[in-house]
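quick one before i forget lol
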Amino acid sequence: MNNKIVKSIREGLTADCSKCFGLCCTALNIIASKDFPINKPADTPCTNLQSDYRCQIHSQLREKGFKGCTVFDCLGAGQVVSQVTFNGQSWRNNPETAGKMFQVFPIMGQIHEMISYAAEALTYDIPSALSDELSENLKGLQNLTKLAADELLSLDLMTYRVALNELLTAASDFIRENTIAKLPGAKRLKDFDHARADWMAKKLKDKDLRATNFRGAYLIAADMRNTDLRAVNLIGADLRDTDFSGTDLSTSMFLTQMQINSAKGDVKTVLPSHIQRPSHWIN
């Protein structure tokens, strides 16, 4: 796949709530916390969901205590389940399919997440052999989105995750090694490995952290203002309340909209092209 196509695929993974049957408001379990003011069991509509599948407090979610709703992003899985998997037949008009639709939604969400990672990796300048493997992987994942509900429910997603993980790690290591080679001083890839590190509330303001591996790291409430995070691997990192004000994330790898939605930032934060600046960030 050429760069233009895969970039379009990655940037096209956005939610269109007008084509979804409020699946994030029904299928998911909600536990009362600082992110939600209510308890809501899975497969049950939120009390704020209207008959047209729109949220009656959408413009006031944060003020009403529903911070978690403004963070969540299905990467477009909701409209695919609603319009493709179930052919536009809603769970309200077809209650016999409701349970199955709600079960399929998180599965489709995981598939879309894997598609986003594979497509993003293909936008990088990586070895052709690795690019070919990622292209085949991406095509296979895209085909999964066309499966019927029962087929989706029978998938072993871990098999797909393991296969993709190996390719993403190879792509990340290649990009990071090339970046490290351009940095002053003799450094090795392992010197930049902070995977699954616990850096909660760590003071990192103004640091040059280029090419660091933060895979699965806990960066909750870390002060990363004005930090250089180019060529950093952020896959699976917990970025809740991480302060990215003035930070350069322009070429950070495998950063998702949901991660950014949970973080803090400002107009000076530089984001990758596929990430939208959250409306709740301070301007």
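fyi The first helix runs from residue 3 to 11.
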